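Handout, page 2. Input:
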Amino acid sequence: MAIVPASRPDLAALREALRLPIPEIVEQLVSLIGRKLTAYVGGVRDVRSVDRWVKGSELHGDAEPRLKFAFQLIRVLAERKGPSVIQSWLAGLNPELGERVPPRLMRENDLETVAPEIMGAARAFLVGS
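Output:
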């Protein structure tokens, strides 16, 4: 296994997101950001879907890449911040993102377009704090 430099926690988070099964990714998201926000990022309204995902239920649409990216993002933030700070960062208007909220960007836009911007905002937040 390759060693990831400490200065690139995003690479370790990406590898983890690619390696872990979806039920475990969802469980970890729920433990850090809660069921409602996990459901929102996954593109569903009902938190019962999150419970089904934890049990191995199939995801629909583009939920899988969105959940994997959210996991990667949260893992990067969790390297230096606790759940309450992470939740606040996710819920707040972000100046690095043009005063937009990261989960809404993830849910309503093409992930390939917004993911680099969101990850950049997370890196800027960690550097500045």
